[in-house]
Structures are given as C-alpha cells and as structure tokens.
Write a structure and sequence with these properties.
43 strands; 675 residues; 9-stranded antiparallel sheet; mainly beta
Length: 675
C-alpha cells in the first residue's frame, strides 16, 4: 500500500516487511537539512547537518527499528588558510638593525689558502683594521669587516602603531604600547649557508622584549628573498625579509594578552634594507601578529602576488571587515637615502585589479566604469584613483605601519567576495596618463615593463597606459615549505620537507608534488692564483641525492617531501671550497576546477629566472606554466661529518657548515666551532 502523510510525501512501502535503505527506515526520517557554514573562518573546521525522526500514526510506537542511524552528520571544511600576521590584532615596529657579519664569507677566494694574506693585520673591526686577500700578483682587495663577530640585533627600534581589530583604524598615537622599545636581551647570530649561496642566511637566537607587552624567543629564520630596491649598486641596495614565530611567550600585561586572544605563539615578519658597511647597520620595519597551525614558519602560505622584479606581496581579503590587506614592505623601490617619494621610479597611479574567470562579475559591479584591457586580457578595477599611491608619495606607510596597507572596499557585496575568493588579483600601475583618461581609453597596451622594468624605456611609447606591478598566479597557486627552507646534511641523513600547496588561499588536495634538481650556473669570481680554474657549477653531481617518489597532498594541502644523502659530493667547486650546494625545486601538478592541468614550480632551483631567457628554458625543460624562486629551498652537503654548534643564550642550534663562520683557521668540513 501507499500512504501520504501531512502532504510531506512520505511514502510507506509495505512488502511483507519494512523497506530499509542503508540500515535506516526510509519512511521514518525527514530529508537532511542543508549543510551549515564552516565552524571557523579560516583553517580546518567542520560543517554540520541534521534530520528529524517523523512518526507515522499507523506504525506502532517505540519500535526498536524506528529511525535507525544518527540524526547528525559532520564533514570537514577548509574555507581558507589563516592570514598569519596580516590578521588583527597586530603591532608594527620600526627602527634600525646591526649586522656584524664577516664579509670574508662573501668572497670564495678567502677559502683558498694561497689567496689569504697571512702577514696582513687580521685584528677585528674595533681596531680599525681589515683582513686582506690577494686576488692576483699585482693587486689586492681589502674586505670590509672581514672578521666580523656575526652578531645581529635591533637598536633604536620601537612600536609605531597597533591594529586591534578590523572595524577601527590602526592607532599610531593613542595607545600605551605605541612608543615602547623593541629590544633584544641578547645578540642573535647571523650565519651564511655558504659563500656561493648567500641567498639563504640564518638568524639564530633572536629574542624579542617589548616592555609592557611580552618577552619571547623567535624561532630560527632564514632569508626568504633578496630584491633589488635601487637602480644602481650591489647587495646594499636590496631589501630582504625574514619571517619566524615567537614561541613560549611570557605576557607582561594581561590586557594585551587578552587582546592577542591569549596566544602562546605569534608570527613576526620584518624587512631589512639601507645597509651601510661603514656602520654595519641599516633600516628595519616589521609586524608582529597572529599565527595558526597552518601558518608556515618562515614564509607566507596563503595568497600572494608575485613579480620577478618586485618580489612577493602577501595579501589578505577580509570578507568580515570588507578590507584588503597588503604587505608591500619589500616591493616598493626607493632612493639611496631610503626615500619612497623619488620621482624616477615611474610609479604613478597604483590600483588593485581582479581577473575573474567569467563575466559574472559584471552582475555585481559597474563594469563599464571599472574595466580595463591589457594585452587582450580584461581586468576589473577594485579600486580607482590610485588608492595605493601612498607608497610612493609618503614614508608613513613604511615607517609607521611596517609596510602593511589596509584598503577598504565597503561597497563590495557577498557576491563580490565570492568572486574574489576564486579570482586572480593584482596591482597595476597607470604610468603614462591620468586615471580619468585611462578609463576612457578603448584599449590599453600591455608592456613587459611590469616584469622587467630595467629592460625597457618607459618614455618610449606615448600609447603605454598601464603595466602590471605585481600579479597573483593565474590559478592563485602558492607553494611553500611549512618549516625550514635550508638544511645542512651529512652522508646518510634525510631531510623531511613538509610542503603546503594552495590555490586562492585554499588548500589543494590530491595534487602531485615532487622535488627536482637542475644544474645551476652561478656567476662566481675566479681565484687567479689557482692552477685549475674554479667551477661555477652548483647542484652537481646529482646521483648522491635520493629524492622522494611522487607524493600527493592531503585534505589540508600538505605533503611530506624528502631528500636523502647517499654519497659524497667531492670538491666540484674547487677554489678551496669543500662540499656542494644543491638548490631544490618543488613541482606541483593538479587538475583545476575547469579540468585544465596546472603545473607550477617553486624554489631555489629557479634562481635566475628574472632573466627572460632563463625563465623560458626552465619552463620548457620542466614542462611548467609558471616558475618562481620566492623561497630558496637549498641543501648543503659536506664530504666529512661536520657539526657546527651555536649556543645563543640557551637557544641551541646545530648547523652543518663548510667553514667556521667567525674566524679563519681550518677550511675543512671536519672543523668544529663553539662561540
């Protein structure tokens, strides 16, 4: 028989017994409710739905087989990765740093005994003397601070602003924490990985003390990127950034402990630039903010915009507060005096754009007023009139707010934020015309100046209306190691590299991930007195490293890669340098939502891809659509077991190194040094 009850179309089928579907009476349960929203706004959470037991009058009550099964169901969810230090609350600081690092480590010929001048005065900097290294029979070179002690610390640094929530503006005056000094109770140590790979310098033993706020040690951190900030000059014209976590926090004031959600760990990122050898100091600015289990230790794993010239710009789209938050601290060029207002960098009208995957965006915004076309690709302007122009018209954004900018988009609806959560975003520079003229233009021409500004003449074309300053990967891909990015290994040792892969700030699951090695050529200096020339080749021989088989990411976008040392590297670089440097690359392959295969590379293996020819070769050799080198994933190998131990006031770190960093005595890998 068939029976309809209360117009709910509950059908009872009687076939001599009740019909069961997967162990549950089909006529006793209501339909499942819709899934709830995720229990958290970021990180791993849970969705929930439920159903209700509906009693049928003709059936006996209290049956043991009534409404079998659970009335609740749960499933995992992961809306987006947490935004780390770009979230609220956070504090910004600004000041100076000292880096008393030995410059002898920057000169590979210093490791060739015949090049070293044993009769030269090698006393330390305090005496005003420098060590000397003979380059050839007719000349010599005096190295600045050749025998520095390796100390690193902040000075004249203070909290400059506090951002307690996304509803109110950041404060730079009316808060007791503003103006407090940021101190280091003890000096940390700065340690180079190797003279041939100075892109990976460690800071070890850094401890932060902010009176009235907290005392906490920072985990070991490694230099992430070195971006040229000025048109002329060497490393002193660059900006670098470090990111690490403050752990075992001792809160001084319970009010601030509550403001920071009773956190036991925080994230800290700071930029260093304007370094002067004479004073061994430079400019410092940075941010201390929230962290989470999915926050990478030394890098930013959520959404980033990239440029081969301007580096990486982490950013955060806050639906709750209708704001965009950018860390532009390492991307904006400045003059030799540190002035961001210099007029010769061709930054005119900077705005935020989005490139949605379809035209639905026009249902939510006035596309006629906000559309621009560059090289046949359509972008929609999230901001207009140069809302980011403060980065080249003032210093305040850097000196007061740590290079972090908040932009309000309070006009945006939930539908707009839905589109932003799955669309490529970037910053464009309208360099040759006013904003009003730009929007009236029928079609703008694209220029490679956005990627390679030093390779083109901005004044050569009157038709040039815009160029890309930084842009998110076309699929929003970001690949980062979650922990350390460099390791010193001996034969028989294995390095496990946990890796996070994300797309538009969400974990990519079931993606293929693998490690690769490419032979790397470095433009290295010859040691003239050698009878055999030095070799500029890194990452060779390859057979002494065993890389893991193809791995797949889990539901959290994580995969564990590994590299094992199965042999000795020998002396392939010669020039007195033992061992070898192996820059590694991570290759990610996955199927996008539209079925396209996406293949992207990241890591130290791709060093040098700012040269268009190198980029083209790497993409062809590895069958990649894009390649980046925003993290210098690198292994250093020695021929003999070598342990280099550093103790910095209780924080112990065991490093393997080709030399003793702070004095010249024995260049072999069997040396041990305990400062």
């Amino acid at each position: 028989m068939t029976m309809f009850v209360n117009k709910m179309e509950i059908v009872l089928l009687y076939l001599g017994s009740f019909l069961f579907i997967e162990g549950t009476l089909a006529d006793d349960w209501s339909e499942w409710s819709s899934w709830s929203g995720c229990s958290v706004t970021c990180g791993p959470g849970v969705r929930h739905r439920q159903r209700f037991c509906i009693q049928v009058d003709s059936l006996p009550r209290n049956r043991k087989d009534s409404c079998r099964g659970s009335k609740n169901q749960y499933k995992d969810c992961y809306e987006q990765l947490c935004p780390s230090y770009l979230d609220w609350p956070r504090v910004h600081f600004n000041g100076k740093f000292v880096s008393d690092s030995p410059s002898a480590n920057n000169y590979r010929c210093a490791f060739q005994p015949s090049e070293y001048c044993p009769t030269c005065d090698t006393s330390r900097r305090e005496t005003g003397a420098m060590a000397s290294y003979v380059k050839d029979a007719n000349s010599s070179q005096i190295l600045e601070n050749a025998l520095g002690n390796g100390h690193f610390y902040f000075y004249e640094t203070e909290v400059t602003s506090a951002c307690w929530d996304g509803e109110s503006d950041c404060v730079s005056t009316d808060d007791p924490i503003v103006g407090k000094q940021v101190k280091n109770p003890h000096h940390a140590r700065m340690v180079d990985l190797d003279p041939d790979w100075q892109q990976a310098t460690d800071i070890i033993g850094l401890k932060i003390h902010i009176p009235g706020l907290l005392v906490a040690p920072m985990t070991r951190t490694t230099l992430n990127s070195l971006i040229k900030r000025q048109k002329e000059g060497g490393d002193t014209t660059a900006v670098v950034y470090y990111k690490g976590k403050l752990t075992n926090i001792k809160w001084i004031d319970p009010v601030y402990k509550e403001k920071f959600r009773n956190a036991t760990e925080l994230s800290m990122r700071f930029h260093l630039d304007q370094f002067q050898f004479e004073e061994m100091s430079g400019r410092l600015t940075g941010t201390i903010g929230m962290t989470s289990p999915d926050d990478c230790d030394m890098s930013y794993g959520a959404r980033v915009m990239k440029s081969y010239v301007h580096g990486e710009v982490p950013f955060y789209v806050s639906r709750e507060h209708k704001k965009l938050v950018f860390d532009l601290g390492g991307a904006i060029p400045c003059s030799s005096s540190g002035n961001f207002s210099a007029s010769d960098f061709n930054l005119k009208v900077l705005d935020v754009v989005v490139s949605p995957s379809n035209d639905e965006f026009c249902n939510f915004i006035d596309c006629k007023d906000r559309t621009l076309t560059c090289d046949g690709k359509t972008y929609f302007m999230l901001t207009q009139g140069g809302v980011l122009d403060t980065v080249h018209t003032s210093q305040n954004w850097y000196s007061t707010y740590g290079g972090v900018l908040e932009i309000s988009i309070d006009w945006a609806t939930d539908a707009v934020f839905d589109m932003l959560s799955k669309s490529q975003m970037g910053i464009i520079n309208q360099s040759s015309t006013s904003d009003a003229q730009f929007r009236k233009s029928k079609k703008s021409t694209y220029s490679a100046c956005g990627l390679f500004p030093d390779r083109c003449d901005h004044g050569s074309s009157s038709e040039e209306h815009c160029w890309i300053f930084v842009m998110e990967n076309p699929n929003g891909v970001n690949i980062k190691p979650t922990r350390e990015i460099t390791r010193r290994l001996n034969r028989g040792e294995t390095w496990i590299i946990p890796t996070l892969s994300s797309s538009y700030g969400r974990p990519i699951k079931n993606a293929s991930v693998e490690l690769r090695i490419l032979k790397t050529l470095n433009d290295l200096e010859e040691c003239k007195q050698n009878t055999v020339s030095c070799s500029p080749v890194l990452a060779s021989p390859k057979h002494i490293l065993k890389l893991n088989d193809l791995m797949h990411t889990d539901a959290h976008g994580l995969a564990e890669l590994s590299v094992k040392v199965v042999g000795k590297p020998g002396f392939p670089r010669r020039c007195g340098l033992d061992g070898q440097i192996y820059p590694l690359g991570i290759i990610l392959t996955y199927s996008a939502a539209d079925g396209r295969i996406v293949r992207v590379g990241e890591g130290g293996m791709f060093d040098g891809i700012s040269d268009p020819f190198n980029l083209k070769q790497v993409k062809k050799q590895c069958n990649l659509q894009q390649a980046y080198n925003s993290v210098q994933i690198t292994v250093f190998l020695c021929n003999r077991s070598f342990t280099f131990t550093i103790i910095c006031h209780g924080q112990r770190s065991r490093l393997r190194h080709s030399i003793s960093t702070w004095f010249h005595k024995d260049w072999s890998c069997s040396s041990n040094f305990l400062p």
